[in-house]
Known about the structure:
The protein has 870 residues and is of the alpha/beta class. It contains 30 helices and 17 strands. It is globular, with a radius of gyration of 45 Å.
Amino acid sequence: xxxxxxxxxxxxxxxxxxxxxxxxxxxxxxxxxxxxxxxxxxxxxxxxxxxxxxxxxxxxxxxxxxxxxxxxxxxxxxxxxxxxxxxxxxxxxxxxxxxxxxxxxxxxxxxxxxxxxxxxxxxxxxxxxxxxxxxxxxxxxxxxxxxxxxxxxxxxxxxxxxxxxxxxxxxxxxxxxxxxxxxxxxxxxxxxxxxxxxxxxxxxxxxxxxxxxxxxxxxxxxxxxxxxxxxxxxxxxxxxxxxxxxxxxxxxxxxxxxxxxxxxxxxxxxxxxxxxxxxxxxxxxxxxxxxxxxxxxxxxxxxxxxxxxxxxxxxxxxxxxxxxxxxxxxxxxxxxxxxxxxxxxxxxxxxxxxxxxxxxxxxxxxxxxxxxxxxxxxxxxxxxxxxxxxxxxxxxxxxxxxxxxxxxxxxxxxxxxxxxxxxxxxxxxxxxxxxxxxxxxxxxxxxxxxxxxxxxxxxxxxxxxxxxxxxxxxxxxxxxxxxxxxxxxxxxxxxxxxxxxxxxxxxxxxxxxxxxxxxxxxxxxxxxxxxxxxxxxxxxxxxxxxxxxxxxxxxxxxxxxxxxxxxxxxxxxxxxxxxxxxxxxxxxxxxxxxxxxxxxxxxxxxxxxxxxxxxxxxxxxxxxxxxxxxxxxxxxxxxxxxxxxxxxxxxxxxxxxxxxxxxxxxxxxxxxxxxxxxxxxxxxxxxxxxxxxxxxxxxxxxxxxxxxxxxxxxxxxxxxxxxxxxxxxxxxxxxxxxxxxxxxxxxxxxxxxxxxxxxxxxxxxxxxxxxxxxxxxxxxxxxxxxxxxxxxxxxxxxxxxxxxxxxxxxxxxxxxxxxxxxxxxxxxxxxxxxxxxxxxxxxxxxxxxxxxxxxxxxxxxxxxxxxxxx
Length: 870
């Protein structure tokens, strides 16, 4: 600098915005920061004298120096001291010469009377330095983020530009220009297209709903068959045909004053309206309704054909359980064309609805605006109406459906006035008489069981004491314990003697081995509640001792409607688990575990494992016979043998086979198929199915003999309870004959013990065993084994003596059991509950109380030893 004494601050020069350069950084080693004084005395150099100059910066100027001080401290080199100049105090500036000669200042001149401020100022200095470092770091990060954003933005800009360029290139093609011009010209008329009227909507609504009612009704009927010798006039044939029965169902509104068509129309119409108001799109709702109900009708028709049972709400647990694909595998070959035609119809429904949706300018069924619901009175009213209509339609549908099956409710009373007479114990018959839609909706809310007269805690305690005395009396003569033996309960899928039905004969006996076994051990005929289906119901009765005959008519499938909602349902395997814990019971089912919710229900029953195709530990043996899709019985038996060989203690083993499950296609080698003789008017499809089914029984017969032979080689007491669940739904001709109804509900059972068991070669008298139902199997097995029983088993033992078989028979277009439970006497004849003896009536009343207490009541018996075996 030319003039070292020139003032650092110069307002004149600052006004002309001179250029500045930063002073050279001073070394800081050994130095400290001390506050500058702000004292009136120019000779004072106290640290507080410069407190008003916070944040000062020092600059040098090429021609003159100018700076404004904002610091509260000044660096003092450890090599010397800085003289306190008057200019420094007054202007807050320090000349370069002063700074360069700061070694002339001694520490003694810097007000030693305030030494305590030095640590504080040092702390402040450290904080400021840290803040500066943080700010610098954040600034660097900010710059990095900004740079990245800029780079990304540039990349996006480049991409958008490329897309725009490509789009412009594409639209500049001559062909594309012609298309654009066409649509520009068409846009005007398209924008002015008509809004379909609500009257048109009403017409579509009425026609589609009516068509679906007729389609559903058509699916539950079948063409009648006539013997060649029958003389039937053409008019009768027309009236009894499917078309004639559907026509009668519709026309009875005028001919018989029974408006069941209207009841079904209202049920489906409420579903349709709910879809319309919830989606607020008429054509979308129409698409959903038409597709869903058509698919429902197809599935309903096939299930009626296969199992003589319509679709019920509980069936949807198959879908939720992931079994939809498995169910599809049950579709018989003769229904494939029907399914394909239905798919074509559904495709047309979808295409037409989408086309009309595009052509209809009225997009919303009820005008509304969710974006600006209160922008105007029209928007406010429309939005409120749309929301209210959706809620009200769903509430009305739910109320109608849940009350339809409840006597005395508003929807039930209205339907009754139209001619609705429910027969839900036979869902197939109910669907034929009242319509599948009404049957389905009636079962959406299924009461389990009506409360028996006199039910109370005191009454149940009295029943517990009563049958405890009976059990003690029976146990005095019995020497064995159930839990000392392994009990194997085998439900053999669709096992029933095919020679029992009339007009069918075979060149060889399909089941010679089992017939021989039945002649040497406890055996008889079982009255099955199902025909063509109902496996889970028969299994439920066998495991629990409860009977479907005691449930309300709307309780169709307890495995799906009841057990999943129970917290601690009782089953006979718990006799073993109470003694041996988890190792007391296991189950084998060579199919998918969620079928009929077995995986859920078996856990509730207390089974430690369910071995299936898709369980965590799957069945090991999965061999099949020929082209059959199902695991053979011999493979299933081998899995059971493996469990027995590896068991630590006696067990209860539950086994459900699959080999003979429908459908019955050409699975086996032609030379192995049994040949039957049938009447000339038997349809070819039925004859072929009978042959294939009977061939499967032949394989079961041999596999069962081999299984029992291997059990005889095991030195452990084992008892087998073997039974068929129901007949297959292939006897189309017999279904038409009410006289054959009883035969279509008879299957076979036997109870057998191996040589290591004390009950080997035991055969109960036919007076006790000739007729039975699956709810009695455990009490009969205990009697066969001479084993002690619980009060509950004592009740079943006594009840079996008085009423040999109890079942809610699902009959076929007439015959036994319609409207009431079916009870058999010891000679196999049907008895009526009103003609029973006093003892029979009392036993039946006690049985109903026990069943109600377990399923719908307070479970008072759980507090007693009613289920315990001493």
